[in-house]
Please model this.
Amino acid sequence: MIFNKLFDTGKTGPKVVFFGAIHGNEYCGSLAIKKIIGDLESSSLNLIYGSVLFVPICNQEAQSKNVRFIDEDLNRIFRKTDTPKSHEEVLANELTTFIDQSDILLDIHSMQAEGPVNIFVDFPTIENRKFAKALGAPYAILGWPELYTNKGQGLVSYDTTAYTNKVGKIGILIECGQHSDPKAVDVAYDAIIRTLADFNVISDIGNKSVVNIDMKEITMTDLFIKNAEGDHFVSEWKHLDKVSVGQVIAERETGEKILANYDCVMVLPKLKGLVGREWFYLGKILGFL
Model:
């Protein structure tokens, strides 16, 4: 059974759920959630309406081994399965029930590479756009489901927000920074507080203000798979680094160079990527969310 903690005011209001460590080697969500739980238990933070469910570590076994997953990526197979065969399929069956019981999901992540905070708005409904803007991140990334549908090269992605959208709930994912950056925990904590304030589950957030900021919108355009151990980047790319048309991004083990065919930005480069899995993505900045 996955550890979870419910705080229920008994008053009608939103039911919010927070996920940490969908990927075991991403700690910021777990640490921020544990801090918020402590604040609520000590009454230094109080809910006024609705309920909040916290799941600090969605993949406990993976986190105990400091790995992304045990058998397969939980955020690629996140759905109910009648006869689960992998460790992550068992977890997904339990975690989906938490979303079924809630109205709103914030899924908290971190990245291999350094780079700015961003929100993934895979399903840009009016509600999800409003939610994203309230979190104060400078970038929103769209087009993840379409990219896998059109250019997935055999890879599929059924993640937490896809399930949330399927069952008619509000849900987005935040990337809080690089895995080992202590500031990522602060970003995650702030995102939780802003979520609770935006949905009026708490009233006072001190000197923070929840406003609908103008976020730069990035649309994902290409996905690259690591084909061999010898595939390598020519630079130590950071998340959302600008890439100019014609610029060499990486080189295959075969010697083939991967060049940018258009002006774009680097998205989630995996400096220690696994062979046969996602290596990096490209996207275009199109305007504002």
User: Anything to note?
Assistant: The first strand starts at residue 5 and ends at 8. The radius of gyration is 19 Å. The chain has seven helices and 14 strands. Residues 219-288 form a domain with the OB fold (Dihydrolipoamide Acetyltransferase, E2P) fold (CATH 2.40.50.100).
